[in-house]
Design a protein that fits this description.
alpha+beta, 6-stranded mixed sheet, 6 strands, 33% helix, 50% strand
Amino acid sequence: MSIQEKEQIRETLRLFFLAQETGDVKLFLRVWHPEARRFGFGSNNELYIFGTEDILANQLHAIRQAKNEDPDFSLTFLITRIKHFDVQKDNLIASATVEWQMLSMGKSIGVHYSQFHFVKSDNDWVIVNVTDRGKEL
């Protein structure tokens, strides 16, 4: 696994979280495969599955709406640690285990542990699957 590949994956993660912070659909679609899924476990260990349309219609729309309604609204996704990288020898598939926090108005509202899966498409890494376990504070 080359340092260059790891840095490209880090950048994909950075852009993914930035798209969520800002509600930027174009940026989100740049790093998220259209057929990707997000599997999330809720506070009662129930499993939720979100496709691209669900994320665009609910999460990103809600973030943009909150920012429009309150110019002081802030949401930050802070990567606290990337615990594991695995890039296959052919540099076509990869995974990363990421610990991150969600901050609203500067206060932590949750800690998440996510497993990201990536594929290389047109020479760029894109996310094809995320499994997330969040703990709300």
